[in-house]
Amino acid sequence: MDFNQVEPVKFPGFVMTDGPSYDDMTRCIHCGLCLQNCPTYRETGMETESPRGRLYLMRSFAEGNIAADNPNLNKHLNLCLQCRACETACPSGVKYGHLIEKTLDELNHRPEVQEKQRNLTQNVIRWLVFRQLFPKPQNMRLFGLGSRLYQRTGLQSLTRKMGLLKLPVWDKIGLGKIGDLEAMMPPISQPIFTPPESEFVPARTQQRYRVALFSGCIMSVALARVNEATVRVLTRNYSDVVIPHAQSCCGALNIHNGDRDYGQEMARHNIDAFEAAEEKFGELDAIIINAAGCGSTLKEYGQLLENDPAYHERAARFANKVRDISEFLAGIEFNRDFGRLEKTVTYQDACHLIHAQRISKPPRVLLKAIPGLDLIEMRDSDKCCGSAGVYNVTQYDMSMRILDHKMERVAETGASCIASGNPGCHIQLQLGVKRSGLNESREEPVEVVHLVELLDQAYRAGEK
Ligand code: SF4
Ligand code: SF4
């Protein structure tokens, strides 16, 4: 018998799932250094909407002192953006993101939470969004196609003119915010991103790397042009690009919303898809992602599948290859054949890039390398824009408060272009430009772009 073997503490609050370790759950020393970095604390000034307050609630729940269906517990945890700014600020190394994911997973598994804390409409929407839409590329494509038709046939403007989404009936079935949510829809002006039949795009410059593109669900549907620009930029940077058809959504939205089991299924599916691509095309130097939220989840596949003997090592190997596009380019001798781009640009750090992946320099290195481009730093560029996955749908009011403050910071810069590295931020900032009326006071309309689009434009300018 090994007397040094210590049985891990099992928290009484975690009855359906494993729960976090004792060490992780008790690491907070209540110093409060994270408070001013937390967007919801800054908005409300309430301890219960701060990282420290939420950690206290989570620990009380874990120790069995608060019931799973306690409405305040659910309310305060659900109002968290999961932006992880508190992790960056914390001197004790509290793994806040990990703790809230595990706690929400337990709560989501409890029948009493499903019955008492959500109405039927909310449960149906969760099932549709997390089980039927995002995980299934064919359904995402249909959704994209339907949205495009809705916007282009005039149905959207007719619906808005007639005020159909403001009718009281929506309130009665728990969809009172549907009009506001519809207004957030990005214009789907382009066909959906479709990888070539061969799954392969050769390098345009002398080939040095073989990379795969993780094309993502939202990026492929709502911002196809960003994926196309990413492929062009990679092929100009000595890379053959493999785009496996079998890949699906990374699972981030499920994992952040208490549906960890399904997120694990999606991770296994993606690991299989990229391993099959390696068998077909040879070993990959990197798996490139241009969406910060997905990138942070992909890099955590090893932890996500740590208890799965069949996948643990494969997940860790997969995760080790994942690179954000800015991280990859700044890490190689990137191609500097840029033409001039006369633009004043400000950069919004995506939370899951700066806080979850600790990447802040590479995007700036790339932007500063473009001749003519004037990068104007924004105050609080590391603070969330309020998008946070589906937060702007589930917590619309708080999301808009945070966005309105973000747009004040954007306006201070005077920039005519906002660059970011995540589709959620991109869509949210587009809405912010509209809400803030920023364009009304400008001769030149403010554009929102992905960083990679600026690189792509600069390479094209270099060809002229
Ligand atoms: S993740 Fe973001 S919103 Fe949530 S507690 Fe931490 S700083 Fe606040
Ligand atoms: S989470 Fe970290 S920074 Fe915040 S109160 Fe706890 S120890 Fe301090």
List keywords for this structure.
single chain; 464 residues; alpha/beta; Fumarate Reductase Iron-sulfur Protein, Chain B, domain 2; Glutathione S-transferase Yfyf (Class Pi), Chain A, domain 2; 4 domains; 5-stranded mixed sheet; 4-stranded parallel sheet; 26 helices; 9 strands; globular; binds iron/sulfur cluster
How would you describe this structure to a colleague?
With 464 residues, the protein is of the alpha/beta class. The chain folds into four domains: 22-116, Alpha-helical ferredoxin (Fumarate Reductase Iron-sulfur Protein, Chain B, domain 2); 120-183, no CATH class; 200-331, Up-down Bundle (Glutathione S-transferase Yfyf (Class Pi), Chain A, domain 2); 343-463, 3-Layer(aba) Sandwich (Rossmann fold), CATH 3.40.50. Helices cover 51% and strands 8% of the residues. It has a five-stranded mixed β-sheet. It has a four-stranded parallel β-sheet with strand order 7-6-8-9, sandwiched between helices. α14 packs across α26. The protein is globular, with a radius of gyration of 22 Å. The structure holds iron/sulfur cluster (2 copies). One iron/sulfur cluster binds at residues 37-40, 51, 54, 80-86, 96. One iron/sulfur cluster is lined by residues 37-40, 51, 54, 80-86, 96.
